[in-house]
Amino acid sequence: MSEEAGNDVVVDPVAGDAAGIVVRGVTRRFGSAEALRGIDLSAPYGQITALVGPNGAGKTTLLLILATLLTPTSGEVRVAGLDPATDPDGVRARMGWMPDALGVYEQLTPREYLTFFAEAYRIDPAAVAGRVTGLLARVHLAEHADQPVHVLSRGQKQRLGLARAMVHEPRVLLLDEPAAGLDPRSRAELRDLLRELAASGVAVLVSSHILSELEELADRVVFVAEGRTVEEDEIAGVARFVVSGWRVRALDDAALTAALTARGVAPLATSAAGSDLPPMSETDAAALLAALVGDDVPVVAFGPIGGQLEAAYLALNKERR
Ligand SMILES: Nc1ncnc2c1ncn2[C@@H]1O[C@H](COP(=O)(O)OP(=O)(O)O)[C@@H](O)[C@H]1O
Ligand SMILES: [Mg+2]
After folding, report:
1. Domain final position from 205, 238, 271
2. Cα(195) to centroid of ligand 2, in Å?
3. Are residues 124 and 60 in the same domain?
4. Protein residue with least CA distance to atom 17, ligand 1
5. Are 27 and 161 in the same domain?
6. Where is the ABC transporter domain (predicted)?
């Protein structure tokens, strides 16, 4: 069944449309501790949804529930249209899971490791070798396929973990802190792989406590804090309301300074990277840019200072204080 599991589009009964993951009002207690106090989110097919929040926010607890490894105390969950509490086998056939700490038997080779999981998922024995070779190529581990896992770098091990999660071609992929400790190049490779998966229609949910790790990766972001969903919105939608500083750079510094002065805008700092302007809304920033261009200032760069998602997150937390 796992052979076919990747291909059926499931119409979600809770959301009323095709969504890879739907979570409504989910809580989870551990004794008297409330790890989750009310989580709402959805992760559409074909997109990367980021689950962002500080340590202890409940990200791993939620992912374990979605991965059928924990049951919620209350609330509704659908993964590929199925309820993990009542149909864990159905969910496991359609869902891939990459835990934060990957237990790999270090003496195995990547090929042996993936073959073991392909067989565990009961993939047609005649197809296993081809599937494994294809996966190794896809995660750029073909050259290391037959070396023991312990010689792999952290980024290579992460990609092996991703290949393991993909071995049964799931339609929903859960990754817990996959970018933690990766160097920028490995992170870029991870981003490209997840982008390809999303483009093929997979619903990807990826957690991190570090916003900047996911900023360039995610289509959408869900913030969690203290077991609750803070805000669910598209990154662009959140960023729209954020008042951040702006940096502008022009080919002609004197013309830029003159035009800014004429409009009563005083740069806070100026460096080779450009002039840092005080915080203003996106609407005001767009108007200022139009005015500068209208004044024939040769603007080559104009954008918010720092990551938009970071700014959005900080603004959200400020509101909560
Ligand atoms: N098995 C458990 N028993 C008791 N408390 C737990 C257990 N698992 C998680 N918690 C608590 O639930 C909260 C959320 O933890 P977790 O989901 O690991 O957060 P995150 O992954 O966002 O760092 C924390 O306060 C944590 O201590
Ligand atoms: Mg965690």
Report:
1. 238
2. 23
3. yes
4. 58
5. yes
6. 21-251
For residue 174, the enclosing domain spans 2-238
pLDDT tens sequence across 251-285:
999 999 999 999 999 998 888 889 999 878 778 89
The total number of structural domains in the chain stands at 2
Checking if the pLDDT of 306 tops 80, the result is: no
Question: Is the same domain home to 153 and 93?
Answer: yes
The token pair that represents 81 in the structure block = 């249209």
Q: State whether the beta carbon of 101 lies less than 6 angstroms from ligand 1.
A: no
**Ligand 1: which of 28, 29, 32, 60 to mutate, most ligand atoms within 8 Å of CB?**
60
Looking from the CA of residue 58, the nearest atom of ligand 1 is: 17
Task: Give the pLDDT band of residue 38 (cuts 50, 70, 90).
Answer: very high
Domain boundary, last residue among 177, 208, 238: 238
- Which residue lies with its CA nearest to atom 4 of ligand 1? 30
Q: Using alpha carbons, list the distances in angstroms from residue 315 to 50, 206, 207, 309.
A: 18, 22, 20, 10
Task: Tell me, yes or no, whether 127 and 220 share the same domain.
Answer: yes
In terms of domains, do 174 and 300 share one?
A: no
Closest residue by CA, ligand 1 atom 6: 30
Considering every ligand atom shown, identify the ligand nearest to the alpha carbon of residue 99 and give its number. Answer: 2
Q: Verify that 214 and 246 share a domain, yes or no.
A: no
The answer to whether the CB of 61 is under 6 A from ligand 1 is yes
Residues 187 and 285 in one domain: no
Percent composition of the chain: helix, strand, coil (DSSP 3-state, to 5) = 40, 25, 35
Instruction: Report CA(170)–ligand 1 centroid distance (Å).
Output: 26
pLDDT tens string 103-147: 777 889 999 999 999 999 988 999 999 999 999 999 999 999 999
CATH classification at residue 33 = 3.40.50.300
For 244, the 3-state DSSP assignment is: strand
Instruction: Return the exposure string of 229-256: e unless at least 16 CB atoms fall within 10 Å of the residue's CB, then b.
Output: bbbbbebeebbeebebbbbbbbeeeebb
Spatial contact of 37 and 84, defined as CB atoms under 8 Å apart: no
Same domain, yes or no, for 187 and 99?
yes
